[in-house]
Amino acid sequence: GIDLKGRSFLTLKDFTPEEINFMLDYAAALKKKKKEGRPGRLLAGKNIVLLFEKTSTRTRCAFEVAGFDEGACVTFLTNSQMGKKESIEDTAKVLGRFYDGIEFRGFKQETVEALAEFSGVPVWNGLTDTYHPTQILADMLTMRENFGALAGRRLVYVGDARNNMGNSLMIGCAKLGMHFVAVAPEVLFPEESLVQEMRAICEETGGTITLTDDIKTGVKGADAIYTDVWVSMGEEDQMAERIQLLKPYQVNAEMMEATGNPDVIFLHCLPSFHDLNTDVAQDVYARFGLTEQEVTDEVFRSPASKVFDEAENRMHTIKAVMCATLATNQVDADGKPI
Ligand code: CP
Ligand code: NVA
Q: Which of 14, 74, 94, 151 could form a disulfide with 67 if both were Cys (CB 3.0 to 4.6 A apart)?
């Protein structure tokens, strides 16, 4: 059997296809258990800390609710001494004495790696500039709910393919034998070294990786169209340049049509910049004369859009990651404690 107890979750690169599928099965079982209203005690007696350098709605709340659902105590920490008055190493050593698990969201992948190295407890990556692995589990679970088996399915990621989402979706698809297509301007293709590394994985899994700047051919045959914001957290100064580059890559009805697949679904990790309902969006739209950005409201609110199922699945999949790496009791595929 698969045993992930004591492991950190820093990038999907560290996990085998079997381990990823195990976490997805586990998440589906925990989701069923929650829907049946059966309270859990899988994390009873565990203390968890959530360290955030960047803002969050889904990730923070998913970790908190997932922890509470299974009986854990959770601390949310945004103003720690780490990186200011205290080194990451020392912070990790201290938190490791208090807590059974640490979630980190921030800028550098090296920070989450250092926390894992020095804390002595499982560390979960809640997003860095490089990777967003818990998001991929939610995306994969959502696709499984829509398609059944994932191997052989075609995920087309449109937009900034060089960011944490582009990288992590490419890894997830390679690991699970899916066809990953990045439709993006060439300067926003994922880094060549990561592409090569993932192509080697594809040799074993049957997946493929395609990078193209041609929208028409790129989106053809998609089972899912996925996009993310054009400007990620911490890159706000690149707004003008990104809008210029990515304007043609907006996900709209015409693009959905161009897939040729009437059953194609739309996914987005969220938060999305698709309407004018926020202060930041209003400012940007006024400055750049835009009406919509990475996705039109029409597609975002269409029946093809599974974005809120996807957001809900953040909670179930994060719960699975915490339970798999921390819990002494596991559940079987029916959600029964084993
Ligand atoms: N998708 C995601 O990570 O959302 P938050 O930034 O709200 O956590
Ligand atoms: N690429 C986005 C993802 C947000 C969940 C960012 O890093 O801001």
A: 74
